[in-house]
Amino acid sequence: KFYPRPWDDPSMNQLFREWINRYFSNPQVLILWFLLILGFTLVVFLGHMLAPVLAAIIIAYLLEGLVHLLEKRRMPRKAAVLIVFVFFMVSFLALLVILMPLVSRQVGQLLQQLPAMFAKGQSLLIQLPEKYPGYITEAQIRQITASLSNQITGLAQQILSFSLASVRGLIAAIIYLILVPLMVFFFLKDKRMIMEWVKGFLPDDRGLAREVWLEVNLQFANYVRGKIMEIIIVGVVTYIVFATMGLQFAMLLALLTGLSVLVPYIGVTVIFFPVAMIAFFQWGASADTLWVMLAYGIIQIFDGNLLAPLLLSRVVNLHPVAIIVAVLVFGGFWGIVGLLFAIPLATLCQAVIRVLTRNLQKEDARKAISSPAAEA
Predict the structure, then answer these.
(1) Of 44, 168, 265, 318, which has the most beta carbons under 10 Å away?
(2) Which of 83-87, 90-94, 292-296, 326-330 has the least mean pLDDT?
(3) Which residue has the higher pLDDT, 272 or 341?
(4) 207 CB contacts (<8 Å, ≥6 apart)?
């Protein structure tokens, strides 16, 4: 019999009810979905206001590994928290005092040289119709030049607007610099008390949510700590290589290269262009430019084939296609933040799917054992 509306078909209704009963009848599954939806809702709608709290939670979560390591050596938790917090503050202040001035100075120098780079690039573009008259015309060159000029003008306006709003941004930065370390200390010191307080609001029957948390906790902690080591090693090696070769803005490019490992495959490709452009504008189409590009490629090969597998072995067992899809999807949703947290979010999705699959398999096994045929 033909039904003009699919929901009028009894077989379709039966199929839909069976699907609902299979995936949403278990109270623990409902609790897991509720906690996931609640967490994503808080981050999406209140993430801007709670940014210092979220940053403090992430930092405290990363430092908890060091605290736990000291506790395993029979050190009291208060003493371990104090030692780890002092180490964090010293490292943070060293980053602000030593690294940030160097990076900001090179950013300023790069902005000063942008007009000269644009003029040199424009002169090279003008020569293209003479060298390749059958492939490119002067009209196309003028269109490209006008587009680049508009882009640079827009960039200058953005920098000006940022400088005008720098007072408000400076006040916000000072507040963050005070609040975040303070909350990190309290999250470390009062972790158990805060966890018990949070558990008081959660249902007692949360076995699946606990399984997801245990799996994500193991994967995420190892991944983040491994990535931090990878960023430091890649950044230091890149700076040493670029500084030895005499490349301008070596510190800035090393920082960008180190941070590029946070976005697999895409980050490496994106950072290649500023490295190649700065080398080209410094030395032109010469052997030095080719050596810089070759050195960048060797660093990425070293990172992808030796360093990353060594630091992240057996962590985040995601297929490369799944990683690329996660980067594209979460980057499309939340921009730069989505790109940075694409792999942890994909790990969370993978853990949820694994736990739900195991739960369904257990339920199917119990039903098979308790069925009349099995009893017979």
Answers:
(1) 318
(2) 326-330
(3) 272
(4) 28
235-249 average pLDDT score? 91
Tokens of 260: 């590029």
- 240, amino acid identity: I
Buried b (16+ CB within 10 A) or exposed e, 222-252: bbbbbbeebbebbbebbbebbeeeebbbbbb
Nearest-CA neighbor of 265 among 228, 314, 311, 318?
318
Q: Give 296's pLDDT tier (boundaries 50, 70, 90).
A: very high
Over residues 170-194, the mean pLDDT reads: 83
Q: What gap in Å lies between CA 312 and CA 210, rounded to an integer?
A: 24
pLDDT classification of 24: cutoffs 50, 70, 90: low
First-to-final CA distance of the chain: 38
Q: Write down the pTM of the prediction.
A: 0.71
Split at pLDDT 50, 70, 90, the class of 315 is low
Would you tell me how many other CB atoms lie within 10 Å of the CB of residue 353? 11
Closest CA to 29 of 360, 375, 313, 278: 360
Q: How far apart are CA 151 and CA 171, in angstroms?
A: 30
Structural contact between residues 326 and 340, judged by C-beta atoms closer than 8 angstroms: no
Cα Rg, the chain, nearest whole Å: 27
- Single out the residue of 30, 26, 35 nearest to residue 201, CA to CA: 35
The whole-number pLDDT of residue 205 equals 67
- In a 13 Å sphere around the CA of 306, the CA atoms on its Cβ side amount to 7
**DSSP tag of 132:** -
C-alpha to C-alpha distance for 154 and 160, rounded to whole angstroms: 10
Range 232-256 average pLDDT:
90
CA dist list (Å): 324 to 189, 305, 310, 331, 343: 38, 18, 21, 10, 9
CA dist., res. 257 & res. 245, Å (int): 16
SS3 percent helix, strand, coil of the chain, rounded to 5, is: 85, 0, 15
